[in-house]
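Re-running the complex after MR caught last week's input typo. The corrected sequence lines follow. Everything else is unchanged.
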Amino acid sequence: MALLDKFASTAAIRDQLGADGQDPTDVVIDQIISPTEGLVGGRHTILAGTNNYLGLTFDPACVEAGKKAIEEQGTGTTGSRMANGSFATHTALERDLANFFQLPYGMVFSTGYAANLGTLTALVKTGDTVLLDSHCHASLYDGCQMSGANLFRFRHNDIKSLEKRLQLLGDKTENCLLITEGMYSVLGDTAPLAKIVELKNRYGALLLVDEAHSLGVYGECGRGVAEAEGVLGEVDFVVGTFSKSLGAMGGFCVSPHPELELIRYVSRPFIFTASSSPSIIASTHEALRQLRARPELRETLWRNANHLYEGLKALGLHLGPQVSPVVAVRLGTKEEALSCWNRLLEAGVYTNLMIPPASPGGFSYLRCSVSAAHTPEQLERIISAFADLKTQLL
Ligand code: PMP
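Corrected-run output:
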Protein backbone atom coordinates (compact mmCIF):
# COMPACT_ATOMS: atom_id res chain seq x y z
CA MET A 1 0.00 0.00 0.00
CA ALA A 2 3.06 2.30 -0.44
CA LEU A 3 1.00 4.40 -2.81
CA LEU A 4 -1.18 5.49 0.08
CA ASP A 5 1.70 6.28 2.48
CA LYS A 6 1.85 9.87 1.31
CA PHE A 7 -1.50 10.56 2.98
CA ALA A 8 0.11 10.21 6.42
CA SER A 9 1.52 13.74 6.08
CA THR A 10 -1.85 15.02 4.83
CA ALA A 11 -3.56 13.49 7.85
CA ALA A 12 -1.04 15.25 10.12
CA ILE A 13 -1.85 18.60 8.44
CA ARG A 14 -5.58 17.96 8.83
CA ASP A 15 -5.14 17.12 12.52
CA GLN A 16 -3.26 20.39 13.08
CA LEU A 17 -6.03 22.36 11.38
CA GLY A 18 -8.58 20.89 13.76
CA ALA A 19 -6.39 21.30 16.86
CA ASP A 20 -8.01 24.54 18.02
CA GLY A 21 -11.67 23.58 17.56
CA GLN A 22 -13.24 23.70 14.12
CA ASP A 23 -11.17 22.64 11.09
CA PRO A 24 -11.44 25.74 8.83
CA THR A 25 -11.43 23.60 5.71
CA ASP A 26 -14.42 21.60 6.89
CA VAL A 27 -17.06 24.16 7.86
CA VAL A 28 -20.64 23.13 7.15
CA ILE A 29 -23.26 25.83 6.79
CA ASP A 30 -26.32 23.89 7.92
CA GLN A 31 -28.71 26.48 6.60
CA ILE A 32 -28.17 29.46 4.32
CA ILE A 33 -30.46 32.21 5.55
CA SER A 34 -29.45 35.05 3.22
CA PRO A 35 -26.38 36.14 1.19
CA THR A 36 -24.81 37.30 4.47
CA GLU A 37 -26.15 34.95 7.13
CA GLY A 38 -26.19 31.22 7.84
CA LEU A 39 -26.50 28.67 10.63
CA VAL A 40 -23.14 27.14 11.53
CA GLY A 41 -23.00 24.63 14.38
CA GLY A 42 -26.47 25.76 15.47
CA ARG A 43 -25.34 29.41 15.70
CA HIS A 44 -26.56 32.38 13.65
CA THR A 45 -23.39 33.40 11.82
CA ILE A 46 -22.54 36.43 9.71
CA LEU A 47 -20.91 35.29 6.49
CA ALA A 48 -17.97 37.67 6.21
CA GLY A 49 -15.97 35.97 3.46
CA THR A 50 -18.28 34.96 0.63
CA ASN A 51 -17.02 36.91 -2.44
CA ASN A 52 -20.74 37.61 -2.94
CA TYR A 53 -19.83 41.23 -3.68
CA LEU A 54 -23.19 42.37 -5.05
CA GLY A 55 -25.24 40.02 -2.85
CA LEU A 56 -27.11 38.63 -5.86
CA THR A 57 -27.38 34.97 -4.77
CA PHE A 58 -30.92 35.50 -3.47
CA ASP A 59 -31.92 38.21 -5.92
CA PRO A 60 -35.55 37.41 -6.90
CA ALA A 61 -34.97 37.97 -10.63
CA CYS A 62 -31.87 35.71 -10.65
CA VAL A 63 -33.64 32.98 -8.64
CA GLU A 64 -36.66 33.16 -10.96
CA ALA A 65 -34.47 32.96 -14.07
CA GLY A 66 -32.75 29.83 -12.68
CA LYS A 67 -36.07 28.16 -11.82
CA LYS A 68 -37.57 28.94 -15.20
CA ALA A 69 -34.53 27.52 -17.00
CA ILE A 70 -34.77 24.24 -15.06
CA GLU A 71 -38.45 23.95 -15.93
CA GLU A 72 -37.96 24.77 -19.60
CA GLN A 73 -34.53 23.23 -20.36
CA GLY A 74 -34.00 20.59 -17.67
CA THR A 75 -31.49 20.16 -14.89
CA GLY A 76 -28.32 19.64 -16.91
CA THR A 77 -26.73 19.61 -20.35
CA THR A 78 -25.26 16.11 -19.84
CA GLY A 79 -22.31 16.73 -22.10
CA SER A 80 -19.63 18.88 -23.65
CA ARG A 81 -20.51 21.65 -26.06
CA MET A 82 -18.11 20.33 -28.72
CA ALA A 83 -19.63 16.83 -28.72
CA ASN A 84 -23.19 17.33 -27.51
CA GLY A 85 -24.00 20.83 -28.73
CA SER A 86 -24.42 24.19 -27.08
CA PHE A 87 -27.73 25.36 -25.72
CA ALA A 88 -28.78 28.65 -27.30
CA THR A 89 -28.50 30.19 -23.83
CA HIS A 90 -24.72 29.45 -23.69
CA THR A 91 -24.09 31.32 -26.91
CA ALA A 92 -26.44 34.17 -25.90
CA LEU A 93 -24.47 34.64 -22.66
CA GLU A 94 -21.19 34.61 -24.61
CA ARG A 95 -22.51 37.33 -26.93
CA ASP A 96 -23.77 39.45 -24.04
CA LEU A 97 -20.56 39.14 -22.05
CA ALA A 98 -18.50 40.23 -25.05
CA ASN A 99 -20.96 43.06 -25.61
CA PHE A 100 -20.71 44.12 -21.95
CA PHE A 101 -16.92 44.41 -22.30
CA GLN A 102 -17.36 46.13 -25.70
CA LEU A 103 -15.25 43.38 -27.27
CA PRO A 104 -16.08 41.20 -30.26
CA TYR A 105 -15.32 37.73 -28.87
CA GLY A 106 -16.45 35.87 -25.76
CA MET A 107 -16.26 32.32 -24.49
CA VAL A 108 -17.89 30.69 -21.47
CA PHE A 109 -16.32 27.87 -19.42
CA SER A 110 -17.79 25.63 -16.72
CA THR A 111 -15.77 27.21 -13.89
CA GLY A 112 -13.42 30.15 -13.41
CA TYR A 113 -10.65 27.65 -12.78
CA ALA A 114 -11.38 25.97 -16.13
CA ALA A 115 -11.46 29.37 -17.85
CA ASN A 116 -7.89 30.02 -16.74
CA LEU A 117 -6.65 26.51 -17.50
CA GLY A 118 -8.51 26.44 -20.80
CA THR A 119 -7.34 29.83 -22.02
CA LEU A 120 -3.73 29.53 -20.91
CA THR A 121 -3.06 25.98 -22.12
CA ALA A 122 -4.32 27.02 -25.56
CA LEU A 123 -2.57 30.37 -25.65
CA VAL A 124 0.99 29.54 -24.61
CA LYS A 125 3.13 26.51 -25.38
CA THR A 126 6.65 25.17 -24.91
CA GLY A 127 9.03 27.85 -26.16
CA ASP A 128 6.72 30.72 -25.18
CA THR A 129 7.26 32.73 -22.01
CA VAL A 130 4.84 33.79 -19.31
CA LEU A 131 5.54 36.57 -16.81
CA LEU A 132 3.16 36.16 -13.89
CA ASP A 133 2.62 38.46 -10.89
CA SER A 134 3.72 36.57 -7.76
CA HIS A 135 0.31 37.06 -6.08
CA CYS A 136 -1.65 35.51 -8.97
CA HIS A 137 -4.26 32.85 -8.18
CA ALA A 138 -3.42 29.14 -8.33
CA SER A 139 -5.60 28.65 -11.43
CA LEU A 140 -3.40 31.06 -13.41
CA TYR A 141 -0.27 29.41 -12.13
CA ASP A 142 -1.63 25.91 -12.86
CA GLY A 143 -2.66 26.93 -16.40
CA CYS A 144 0.87 28.16 -17.09
CA GLN A 145 2.43 25.02 -15.61
CA MET A 146 0.20 22.79 -17.73
CA SER A 147 0.97 24.75 -20.89
CA GLY A 148 4.70 23.90 -20.82
CA ALA A 149 5.67 27.57 -21.36
CA ASN A 150 8.67 29.05 -19.53
CA LEU A 151 7.25 30.64 -16.41
CA PHE A 152 8.79 33.53 -14.47
CA ARG A 153 7.19 35.41 -11.61
CA PHE A 154 7.72 39.13 -11.12
CA ARG A 155 7.42 40.84 -7.75
CA HIS A 156 3.85 41.70 -6.87
CA ASN A 157 2.69 44.93 -8.54
CA ASP A 158 6.33 45.89 -9.12
CA ILE A 159 6.74 47.53 -12.53
CA LYS A 160 10.55 47.60 -12.25
CA SER A 161 10.67 43.87 -11.55
CA LEU A 162 8.40 43.24 -14.56
CA GLU A 163 10.48 45.44 -16.85
CA LYS A 164 13.68 43.72 -15.74
CA ARG A 165 12.14 40.37 -16.70
CA LEU A 166 11.09 41.76 -20.10
CA GLN A 167 14.58 43.13 -20.75
CA LEU A 168 16.11 39.73 -19.98
CA LEU A 169 13.92 38.18 -22.69
CA GLY A 170 15.67 40.23 -25.41
CA ASP A 171 13.99 39.61 -28.77
CA LYS A 172 11.69 36.91 -27.35
CA THR A 173 9.12 39.38 -25.95
CA GLU A 174 6.78 38.80 -28.91
CA ASN A 175 6.25 35.29 -27.61
CA CYS A 176 5.56 36.54 -24.14
CA LEU A 177 2.31 36.74 -22.20
CA LEU A 178 2.01 38.98 -19.12
CA ILE A 179 -0.51 37.87 -16.49
CA THR A 180 -1.99 39.89 -13.67
CA GLU A 181 -5.23 40.07 -11.76
CA GLY A 182 -7.36 43.21 -11.56
CA MET A 183 -8.16 43.25 -7.85
CA TYR A 184 -6.07 40.65 -6.01
CA SER A 185 -8.04 38.11 -4.06
CA VAL A 186 -6.17 37.98 -0.75
CA LEU A 187 -5.12 41.58 0.00
CA GLY A 188 -7.72 43.37 -2.12
CA ASP A 189 -5.13 45.62 -3.76
CA THR A 190 -5.24 46.39 -7.50
CA ALA A 191 -2.76 46.01 -10.34
CA PRO A 192 -1.23 49.18 -11.89
CA LEU A 193 -2.74 48.20 -15.23
CA ALA A 194 -2.12 51.48 -17.08
CA LYS A 195 1.62 51.12 -16.42
CA ILE A 196 1.57 47.41 -17.27
CA VAL A 197 -0.21 48.13 -20.58
CA GLU A 198 2.40 50.75 -21.38
CA LEU A 199 5.15 48.14 -20.84
CA LYS A 200 3.42 45.42 -22.83
CA ASN A 201 2.98 47.81 -25.76
CA ARG A 202 6.59 48.95 -25.57
CA TYR A 203 7.93 45.39 -25.52
CA GLY A 204 5.37 43.90 -27.94
CA ALA A 205 4.02 41.31 -25.49
CA LEU A 206 0.37 40.29 -24.88
CA LEU A 207 -1.54 40.82 -21.62
CA LEU A 208 -4.12 38.63 -19.86
CA VAL A 209 -5.95 40.11 -16.85
CA ASP A 210 -8.03 38.02 -14.44
CA GLU A 211 -10.88 40.24 -13.25
CA ALA A 212 -12.48 37.46 -11.13
CA HIS A 213 -12.73 39.72 -8.08
CA SER A 214 -13.11 43.05 -9.86
CA LEU A 215 -16.10 42.34 -12.12
CA GLY A 216 -19.05 44.28 -10.72
CA VAL A 217 -16.70 45.96 -8.24
CA TYR A 218 -14.41 48.30 -10.22
CA GLY A 219 -14.94 50.57 -13.22
CA GLU A 220 -17.67 53.02 -14.14
CA CYS A 221 -19.83 50.21 -15.56
CA GLY A 222 -18.47 47.45 -13.31
CA ARG A 223 -16.24 45.89 -15.96
CA GLY A 224 -13.25 45.74 -13.63
CA VAL A 225 -9.90 47.36 -12.92
CA ALA A 226 -8.90 47.65 -16.60
CA GLU A 227 -12.00 49.79 -17.14
CA ALA A 228 -11.25 51.83 -14.01
CA GLU A 229 -7.70 52.46 -15.30
CA GLY A 230 -8.97 53.40 -18.78
CA VAL A 231 -7.08 50.57 -20.55
CA LEU A 232 -9.76 47.92 -21.14
CA GLY A 233 -9.39 48.33 -24.93
CA GLU A 234 -5.70 47.41 -24.67
CA VAL A 235 -5.98 44.21 -22.68
CA ASP A 236 -5.65 41.17 -24.95
CA PHE A 237 -7.58 38.66 -22.85
CA VAL A 238 -9.88 39.37 -19.90
CA VAL A 239 -10.81 36.29 -17.89
CA GLY A 240 -13.18 36.08 -14.97
CA THR A 241 -15.68 34.02 -13.06
CA PHE A 242 -19.41 33.83 -12.43
CA SER A 243 -18.84 32.65 -8.86
CA LYS A 244 -18.37 36.03 -7.22
CA SER A 245 -20.32 39.17 -8.20
CA LEU A 246 -22.61 37.14 -10.46
CA GLY A 247 -23.47 34.74 -7.63
CA ALA A 248 -23.36 31.49 -9.62
CA MET A 249 -20.62 29.30 -11.07
CA GLY A 250 -18.64 29.32 -14.31
CA GLY A 251 -15.98 31.36 -16.05
CA PHE A 252 -15.35 33.40 -19.18
CA CYS A 253 -12.76 34.88 -21.46
CA VAL A 254 -13.37 37.91 -23.69
CA SER A 255 -10.95 39.34 -26.23
CA PRO A 256 -10.48 41.65 -29.20
CA HIS A 257 -8.58 38.80 -30.94
CA PRO A 258 -10.50 36.52 -33.33
CA GLU A 259 -8.16 33.69 -32.23
CA LEU A 260 -10.34 33.35 -29.11
CA GLU A 261 -12.84 31.53 -31.33
CA LEU A 262 -10.11 29.01 -32.20
CA ILE A 263 -9.29 28.37 -28.55
CA ARG A 264 -12.50 26.30 -28.49
CA TYR A 265 -10.86 23.75 -30.81
CA VAL A 266 -7.71 23.20 -28.78
CA SER A 267 -8.68 23.87 -25.16
CA ARG A 268 -8.97 20.56 -23.31
CA PRO A 269 -10.58 22.10 -20.18
CA PHE A 270 -13.29 23.40 -22.53
CA ILE A 271 -13.65 20.32 -24.75
CA PHE A 272 -13.53 17.51 -22.21
CA THR A 273 -16.04 18.65 -19.61
CA ALA A 274 -19.78 19.11 -19.48
CA SER A 275 -21.13 22.59 -20.18
CA SER A 276 -22.84 24.59 -17.45
CA SER A 277 -26.39 23.63 -16.57
CA PRO A 278 -29.25 25.79 -17.90
CA SER A 279 -30.11 27.21 -14.45
CA ILE A 280 -26.54 28.39 -13.90
CA ILE A 281 -26.39 30.06 -17.30
CA ALA A 282 -29.79 31.70 -16.78
CA SER A 283 -29.12 33.06 -13.28
CA THR A 284 -25.67 34.28 -14.39
CA HIS A 285 -27.16 36.04 -17.39
CA GLU A 286 -29.79 37.70 -15.19
CA ALA A 287 -27.10 38.70 -12.67
CA LEU A 288 -25.17 40.35 -15.51
CA ARG A 289 -28.31 42.32 -16.39
CA GLN A 290 -28.69 43.34 -12.74
CA LEU A 291 -25.04 44.35 -12.54
CA ARG A 292 -25.53 46.61 -15.57
CA ALA A 293 -28.89 48.05 -14.54
CA ARG A 294 -28.22 48.69 -10.85
CA PRO A 295 -25.04 50.71 -10.29
CA GLU A 296 -26.41 51.43 -6.82
CA LEU A 297 -25.34 47.88 -5.83
CA ARG A 298 -21.75 48.91 -6.48
CA GLU A 299 -22.22 52.12 -4.51
CA THR A 300 -23.57 50.17 -1.51
CA LEU A 301 -20.69 47.71 -1.81
CA TRP A 302 -18.13 50.51 -1.64
CA ARG A 303 -19.93 52.21 1.26
CA ASN A 304 -19.77 48.88 3.10
CA ALA A 305 -16.12 48.34 2.13
CA ASN A 306 -15.22 51.74 3.59
CA HIS A 307 -17.22 50.99 6.72
CA LEU A 308 -15.42 47.71 7.44
CA TYR A 309 -11.94 48.89 6.42
CA GLU A 310 -12.12 52.07 8.51
CA GLY A 311 -13.66 50.20 11.48
CA LEU A 312 -10.88 47.59 11.51
CA LYS A 313 -8.21 50.18 10.84
CA ALA A 314 -9.39 52.17 13.87
CA LEU A 315 -8.63 49.06 15.97
CA GLY A 316 -5.01 49.35 14.83
CA LEU A 317 -5.04 46.07 12.89
CA HIS A 318 -2.60 45.41 10.02
CA LEU A 319 -4.74 45.67 6.88
CA GLY A 320 -4.08 45.48 3.13
CA PRO A 321 -2.76 48.63 1.45
CA GLN A 322 -6.02 50.10 0.14
CA VAL A 323 -9.73 50.32 0.97
CA SER A 324 -11.36 47.48 -0.89
CA PRO A 325 -14.24 45.00 -0.69
CA VAL A 326 -11.55 42.49 0.33
CA VAL A 327 -10.30 43.40 3.80
CA ALA A 328 -7.46 41.17 5.01
CA VAL A 329 -6.16 41.33 8.58
CA ARG A 330 -2.52 40.27 8.79
CA LEU A 331 -1.52 38.05 11.70
CA GLY A 332 1.59 36.38 13.05
CA THR A 333 1.95 32.63 13.06
CA LYS A 334 -0.37 30.02 11.53
CA GLU A 335 -1.32 28.89 15.04
CA GLU A 336 -2.31 32.42 16.11
CA ALA A 337 -4.34 32.83 12.94
CA LEU A 338 -6.10 29.51 13.48
CA SER A 339 -6.95 30.44 17.05
CA CYS A 340 -8.31 33.91 16.08
CA TRP A 341 -10.32 32.41 13.21
CA ASN A 342 -11.93 29.94 15.67
CA ARG A 343 -12.71 32.65 18.25
CA LEU A 344 -14.40 34.74 15.52
CA LEU A 345 -16.46 31.76 14.41
CA GLU A 346 -17.53 31.13 18.00
CA ALA A 347 -18.58 34.81 18.12
CA GLY A 348 -20.75 34.22 15.02
CA VAL A 349 -18.46 35.68 12.34
CA TYR A 350 -17.22 33.41 9.54
CA THR A 351 -14.09 34.78 7.82
CA ASN A 352 -11.61 33.11 5.45
CA LEU A 353 -8.41 31.82 7.00
CA MET A 354 -5.46 32.23 4.63
CA ILE A 355 -2.24 30.57 5.72
CA PRO A 356 1.05 29.75 3.96
CA PRO A 357 1.71 28.35 1.40
CA ALA A 358 -1.65 29.57 0.01
CA SER A 359 -1.19 33.15 1.27
CA PRO A 360 1.24 35.76 -0.06
CA GLY A 361 4.50 36.75 1.64
CA GLY A 362 4.51 33.87 4.14
CA PHE A 363 1.99 35.71 6.35
CA SER A 364 -1.32 34.46 7.73
CA TYR A 365 -4.50 36.45 7.21
CA LEU A 366 -8.09 36.58 8.31
CA ARG A 367 -9.72 37.67 5.08
CA CYS A 368 -13.12 39.33 4.99
CA SER A 369 -15.01 40.09 1.82
CA VAL A 370 -17.73 42.69 1.95
CA SER A 371 -21.09 42.37 0.22
CA ALA A 372 -23.58 45.01 -0.87
CA ALA A 373 -26.04 42.85 1.09
CA HIS A 374 -24.28 43.36 4.46
CA THR A 375 -26.25 45.69 6.69
CA PRO A 376 -24.49 48.39 8.73
CA GLU A 377 -25.44 46.39 11.86
CA GLN A 378 -23.77 43.26 10.51
CA LEU A 379 -20.62 45.23 9.70
CA GLU A 380 -20.60 46.65 13.24
CA ARG A 381 -20.94 43.12 14.63
CA ILE A 382 -17.95 41.99 12.56
CA ILE A 383 -15.90 44.97 13.80
CA SER A 384 -16.88 44.35 17.40
CA ALA A 385 -15.96 40.63 17.14
CA PHE A 386 -12.50 41.69 15.93
CA ALA A 387 -12.32 44.29 18.72
CA ASP A 388 -12.93 41.57 21.33
CA LEU A 389 -9.88 39.74 19.97
CA LYS A 390 -7.71 42.81 19.64
CA THR A 391 -4.98 41.76 22.09
CA GLN A 392 -4.57 38.45 20.27
CA LEU A 393 -4.59 40.12 16.86
CA LEU A 394 -1.91 42.78 17.41
N1 PMP B 1 -9.25 33.54 -10.58
C1 PMP B 1 -9.15 34.12 -9.37
C2 PMP B 1 -8.34 35.35 -9.23
C3 PMP B 1 -9.80 33.55 -8.27
O1 PMP B 1 -9.69 34.13 -7.07
C4 PMP B 1 -10.57 32.37 -8.45
C5 PMP B 1 -11.32 31.70 -7.32
N2 PMP B 1 -11.23 32.20 -6.11
C6 PMP B 1 -10.61 31.80 -9.71
C7 PMP B 1 -9.96 32.40 -10.76
C8 PMP B 1 -11.37 30.52 -9.95
O2 PMP B 1 -12.73 30.78 -10.05
P1 PMP B 1 -13.84 29.70 -9.68
O3 PMP B 1 -13.76 29.49 -8.19
O4 PMP B 1 -15.09 30.39 -10.08
O5 PMP B 1 -13.55 28.46 -10.43
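None of the earlier attempt is carried over here. The chain has two domains: 16-47+295-393, 60-293. The longest strand covers residues 29-34.
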